């Protein structure tokens, strides 16, 4: 159960427990917070994407066997233009990536398009600005002001926790 005191690591734990199926997409690799939780689940395959790929070398080294076996793929790709077919993944995850997207609502639409069962998203809220991350209140607010109405329109359940907010959608229960 998430609370106002929860961290993004707690969110990743919660999202991993909520995962459905065995083929996952992690949108916005970043430091690998979500990826670390998903790799603990036996029998899953994970594709993790990031447009900058700045941590791929470190993550590839950490998960050398998983990358070699094909259980983990790291791809340089923007979340707003996912190069996968419809319903390609059972569950799609994204933690801390929406505010980096030039068009976060398109990013959400793409996540829904490629998800077969569930989409789980979390992003920083304005209370976290310049404290838990290097972004300003204005940057985080501008992103959220686009995301929340778009997410509502798509049917996401939205929960706010002060420093972050979450979006939940069962695509095809």
Automatic annotation (TrEMBL):
This is Methyltransferase type 11 domain-containing protein. It comes from Thermogymnomonas acidicola. Pfam families: Methyltransf_11. Gene3D superfamilies: Vaccinia Virus protein VP39. Residues 25-117 form the Methyltransferase type domain. It comes from the Archaea. One of its GO terms (molecular function) is S-adenosylmethionine-dependent methyltransferase activity. Signal peptide: none annotated. InterPro entries: Erg6_SMT_methyltransf (IPR050447), Methyltransf_11 (IPR013216), SAM-dependent_MTases_sf (IPR029063). Keywords: Transferase.
């Amino acid at each position: 159960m998430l609370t106002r005191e929860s961290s993004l690591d707690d969110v990743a734990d919660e999202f991993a427990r909520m995962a459905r199926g065995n083929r996952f997409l992690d949108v916005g690799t970043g430091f690998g917070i979500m990826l670390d939780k998903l790799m603990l689940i036996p029998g899953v395959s994970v594709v993790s994407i990031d447009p900058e790929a700045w941590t791929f070398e470190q993550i590839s080294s950490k998960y050398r066997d998983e990358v070699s076996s094909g259980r983990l793929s790291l791809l340089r790709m923007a979340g707003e233009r996912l190069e996968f077919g419809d319903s390609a993944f059972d569950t799609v995850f994204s933690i801390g990536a929406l505010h980096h997207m030039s068009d976060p609502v398109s990013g959400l639409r793409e996540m829904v398009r490629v998800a077969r069962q569930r989409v789980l998203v979390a992003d920083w809220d304005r209370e976290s600005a310049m404290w838990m991350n290097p972004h300003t209140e204005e940057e985080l607010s501008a992103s959220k002001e686009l995301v929340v109405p778009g997410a509502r329109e798509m049917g996401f359940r939205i929960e706010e926790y002060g420093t972050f907010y979450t979006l939940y959608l069962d695509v095809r229960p």
